[in-house]
Amino acid sequence: CEFVALQVYTSCLSTRPSPERSDRKKELLRDDGPDLQDFISGELSEKSKWAEYKGTLKRQKGERLRLPPWLKTEIPIGKNYNRLKNTLRDLNLHTVCEEARCPNIGECWGGGEYATATATIMLMGDTCTRGCRFCSVKTARQPPPLDPDEPYNTAKAIAAWGLDYVVLTSVDRDDIADGGAEHFAKTVTNLKERNPQILVECLTPDFRGDLAAVEKIALSGLDVYAHNVETVRELQRHVRDPRANFDQSLSVLKHAKKVKPTVLTKTSIMLGLGETDQQIVSTMTGLREAEVDCLTLGQYMQPTKRHLKVEEYVTPERFAHWEKVGSDMGFTYTASGPLVRSSYKAGEFFLKNLLKKRETEAAE
Predict the structure, then answer these.
(1) Can you tell me the distance from the alpha carbon of 333 to that of 323, in angstroms, rounded to the nearest whole number?
(2) Is 102 within any annotated ligand binding site?
(3) Residue 249 annotated as binding?
(4) In this predicted model, what pLDDT tens digit does every residue of 259-312 receive, in sequence order?
(5) Which residue of 44, 55, 105, 340 is surrounded by the most CB atoms within 10 Å?
């Protein structure tokens, strides 16, 4: 799952706390991770001052790292944001944007730089059967049963929004025989029936390595098949639920490409968990050998004190380095930056245009 949970509360979007409230938030921050005000841009977030930052970037034993300035961001909110949020409430739908408290929510929901509104819908409820050590999504052995109306309601909501590009993801549902693959596929089918022009990305679980489930979604009519390896191979057991592993995730991406060669495959890696440069290169090499097309790299953030600590805040310059490495390796697209997430808006803009180009070439 992709839930790199940043502790950002959208209910605070237009408010500035009082000094007393700020003090209380600083106290909470030590226990529960960063909140909205720690990400909203301020004096320290100005790019011209990044080089002057003297804070510690690598964690020493017993220490807790402070949030560096490049992890502060403006949260642009507009009419489209409010419209999407209200529709979600009316139809009882969940988004990763909210559940994972992503700082890019305003840019994606509001349309951002490219005026291409995007949302990431989380299917099959808000409770996962797995317990990855980086993720803030709720867990349970037996989550509530699936909502049979969800595929229809999801398609209805997205049609009402007028989105250009939608990402469908889900919690892991190991309690269901096919992991929810049929439910996933029905949602894609409903979407394409209502709006054949919309581009659909599916960010799926690993389905316990069940390739029949992978195939069902890959052939459902989607445009991008995404599944996240989350971290380098060497840190898999430390970071992810024991039921997940690198080779199993790689098999998902390989099989999606095998059964539908024209599909774009995509994955994501978090940095700042203690990985080495050599491990990053090795992991990226393995992904390219599996013919993965698109890669995103972003900063891991500790959502609460119960989750893995941040071992290092990677600088924007270092993220730029990894973007160049990805490009040199032959990834069709590499998005790499502190606030980049697997459903990052700028990447979707690129993918949309890439898919349109392929469509035009195929018609010629």
Answers:
(1) 9
(2) yes
(3) no
(4) 999 999 999 999 999 999 999 999 999 999 999 999 999 999 887 778 888 899
(5) 105
67 in Cβ contact with 42 (< 8 Å): no
294 is in an annotated binding site: no
CA distances from 64 to 10, 56, 60, 183, 301 (A): 25, 9, 8, 41, 12
Rounded Cα gap, residues 207 and 178, in angstroms:
7
* pLDDT confidence tier of residue 131, bands split at 50, 70 and 90: confident
Q: What's the rounded Cα separation, in Å, for the pair 221 and 193?
A: 10
Which ranges of 162-228 does DSSP label H, i.e. alpha helix? 181-194, 211-218
Q: What percent of the chain has pLDDT over 90?
A: 41
108 is in an annotated binding site: yes
**125 within 8 A of 146, measured Cβ to Cβ:** yes
Phi-psi map region of 87: left, alpha, beta (phi>0 left; psi -120 to 50 alpha): alpha
Which residue matches tokens 């096919």?
178
Residue 56 neighbours by CB distance under 10 Å? 13
Place of tokens 């992890």: 71
Distance between CA atoms of residues 44 and 267, nearest Å: 31
